[in-house]
Amino acid sequence: MEQLPAQRPLTVVQLPDGSHVYADPASLPAPQPPGPQVVHIHQAPPDRTVQRVALGSGVGAGAVAAGVYFGPLLVGVLTAIAANLAMLAFIALVLGWAVVTVVRSVTTGTKSTGRTGRKSR
Question: Torsion angle, CA of 26/29/30/34, rounded to 10 degrees?
Answer without folding.
Answer: -140
